[in-house]
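User: quick one, fold this
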Amino acid sequence: MPTRGVIYVHSSPPAVCPHVEWAIGRVLETPVDLHWTAQAAAPSSWRTDHVWMAEAGTGAELASALHQWPMLRFEITEDPSPGVDGERIMFVPGRGMYRAATSANGDLMVAEDRIRALVATTTDAEALRHGLSKLLGAEWDNELEPYRFAGDDSGQHWLSQVS
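Assistant:
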């Protein structure tokens, strides 16, 4: 059963943009023509997003195809489907890939064994806070946040313009 997701390429050098389109199209088995806009958070970089529909597991395939360009910043979400958890994948240059399962409402889910291992190996509250932050991908979130809404065309401010 197909699922849907979104690819967010938060920053890409202009010369790499056609290669990103080709890689996404190869995974989705259909040509894609992405609408690229300037990325205000990284001068001389471009950003785009693309909603996709394909088989469960496609998000991981897309991430694998895109991570071959280590200068990209990207995020991929995959909605849950019957019998399959959703997923969120983030990639940041120099930090690498972060991957976590997501619930039906989009919250990150951390496996019980990972939490148990963290609790068993931490010695104080600060170490526990740091470990939980790492399990939740906070470092990736913090690095991507300036790129998420840093475009003039992001459309994220429309509510503030309602009178």
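User: anything notable?
Assistant: Residues 154-163 have pLDDT under 50 and may be disordered.
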